[in-house]
Structure formats: C-alpha cells, structure tokens
Write a structure and sequence with these properties.
mainly beta; Lipocalin; eight-stranded antiparallel β-barrel; 1 helix; about 5% helix; elongated
C-alpha cells in the first residue's frame, strides 16, 4: 500500500510547554516556528512510516522578552549552537478508538532520549476548500535536566525557581498532500 504524506497546518496548530515557577504558578511558552511531516499507510495513522517534528528554538515565546532571551541562552536551550529541537516518531500504538501512545526520540541541545507521548486522534474531515485534514491533541512530560537544561536557582526561602518537569501540549492539524 502506498504511503500518504501529511504536512502541518501551522495556522491551525500550536506547540506549548508548561513549567512551574516558584512551585506556585505555571508559566506557558510556545514555539512560533515549527514543522511536522507524517507519512502513513492507514487512515488511522497506525502504520505511520515517518513522523518528524522540528521547532526553531529562536521562535520560543513566553510573552516575556527577558525570559525568552534567558531561555535561548546557554543556560537553557543554547539557541546559538542548537537551532532546533527534534522529535522522530518510531511507532504509534493504538490504545483505543481515538487514543494512542507515540514512542520516539526527542533531541534537545544535542541530547537524544526516548519519549512516549499521549495522542488523541480527533478524526479526519474535508475542509470548505476541499483539503483533507486530520486533527490530534498531544500531551506528555519530560525532565528538562535530561536534555542539559540544568540552570537552577533557589529563592531565599528555599523554593525552586523553575521545576524540572516540563509538561508538553500540542494541538496539531495536518493537511493531506496530493
């Protein structure tokens, strides 16, 4: 069976991360420039032969310019030496009608580790312009220190400034390629 190629619709997709600040509130950030290519043999994507996601580190945005500059620095993502983060999907395991586990390798700052994320398949529709679209919600979590994002500080009271756990959330809309 021939593979079908899918590309991300960036106007209808978003890539977010959430991290605890001072362990009392959550800060949300997102990447403004990203790409995702998928090739699959089945309409439910279970026989995906290619899943490659990249995000430009320099496009990070937390709605605070000073924090964004710090995140791009060598203390965190080191954008000058590591321009992109990359996820390569290895296999998609169907857990139920619309729930999946996606296993793959995540590379941040030149460090690659295996990751499993939860994927909710929203379905496939044809939009008003005749394009076939597929929708997904992706969630998971990683430990930032596993990828060399080790900057840390403690307040005078002994509270951690930035948690190690990073929650990942993405709303993905793919467009079927002709």
């Amino acid at each position: 069976m021939a593979s079908t190629k899918w590309s991300i619709d960036p106007a209808h997709s978003e890539i977010q991360f959430k991290v605890k600040h001072l362990m009392i509130t959550t800060v949300t950030g997102y990447f403004q420039k990203f790409d995702l290519e998928v090739e699959a043999e089945e309409e439910d994507f279970t026989k995906a032969t290619k899943i490659v996601f990249t995000a430009d580190v320099d496009s990070i945005n937390t709605n605070n310019e000073q924090r964004d500059t710090h995140l791009k620095s060598a203390d965190f993502f080191d954008a000058a030496n590591h321009e992109q983060l990359r996820f390569e999907g290895k296999n998609l395991e169907k857990a139920s009608d619309d729930e999946y586990k996606l296993n793959g390798d995540l590379t941040i700052r030149g460090t690659t580790k295996p990751v499993t994320v939860n994927v909710e398949f929203g379905g496939i529709v044809v939009d008003p312009y005749g394009q076939t679209k597929a929708g997904f919600t992706v969630s998971g979590k990683i430990n930032r220190k596993d990828y060399g994002l080790t900057w840390s500080a403690v307040t005078e009271a002994g509270s951690v400034v930035v948690s190690d756990e990073i929650k990942l959330h993405a709303e993905i809309q793919l467009v079927k390629q002709a």
